[in-house]
Inverse folding.
């Protein structure tokens, strides 16, 4: 049995107490991966941004809001875990300044200065121990396979799942599973639960069993 951390869902970055930046990630892929991992007998810890879906009741769920909070919670959980799957879509930018009061309309253009948030998978991929593995996701609209492979190498992932933009907030997904040496393991299309089972079977074979 392995202990697997899964990041899931979007994050939020507040501009003021009531407005925030986010994206359309639903957390469905993370939930499907959690179920697939549990079905294989693994222990699952989901680090989730705000979502309206439910995670499997036998998974441990840690709720977070911002990308920094997701990084902190994932880092802590990963210390005692075998692997990490980055299925979340964390906000890549946050306002440079967060207003303490609600911004009032002035009739003028509002200029928003944004700074980058930390990249969770890249930080933990770079710092992982030799006995740990990290699986990233990539969502690209052009040069899909090439960019996924570049991303896997840049973020020090052991495997990357390249998925289509249509996966966002959808019931279905179409992915390509790529191993760290560039081997294309499989192209899988179907519902998120069936795609998740396929991804987990590759994780099981190439990352979990190989580590034993
Ligand atoms: O660079 P990009 O956002 O396309 O990379 C996607 C992968 O990186 C996913 O596995 C996603 O969960 C992860 N990621 C992250 N932290 C970020 C941005 C992306 O862990 N701030």
């Amino acid at each position: 049995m392995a202990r697997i951390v899964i990041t899931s869902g979007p994050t939020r970055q507040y501009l003021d107490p009531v407005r925030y930046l986010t994206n359309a990630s639903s957390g469905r892929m993370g939930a499907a991966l959690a179920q697939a991992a549990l079905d294989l007998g693994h222990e699952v810890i989901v680090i989730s941004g705000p979502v309206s879906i439910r995670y499997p009741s036998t998974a441990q769920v840690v709720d977070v809001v911002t990308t920094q909070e997701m990084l902190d919670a994932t880092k802590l959980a990963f210390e005692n875990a075998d692997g990490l799957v980055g299925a979340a879509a964390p906000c890549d930018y946050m306002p440079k300044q967060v207003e303490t009061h609600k911004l009032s309309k002035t009739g003028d253009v509002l200029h928003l200065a944004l700074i980058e948030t930390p990249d969770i998978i890249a930080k933990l991929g770079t710092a992982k121990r030799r006995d740990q593995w990290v699986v990233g996701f990539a969502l690209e609209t052009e040069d899909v396979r090439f960019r996924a492979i570049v991303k896997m190498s840049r973020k020090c992932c052991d495997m990357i799942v390249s998925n289509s933009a249509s996966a966002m907030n959808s019931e279905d997904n179409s992915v390509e599973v790529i191993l760290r040496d560039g081997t294309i393991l499989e192209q899988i299309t179907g519902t998120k639960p069936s795609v998740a089972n396929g991804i987990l079977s590759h994780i099981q074979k190439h990352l979990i069993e190989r580590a034993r």
Remarks:
- Residues 192-208 form the longest helix (17 residues).
- The mean pLDDT is 95.
- DSSP finds five helices and twelve strands in the chain.
- The pocket of cytidine-5'-monophosphate is lined by residues 7, 67, 86, 88, 90, 92, 117, 119-121, 136-139, 151 (CB under 6 Å).
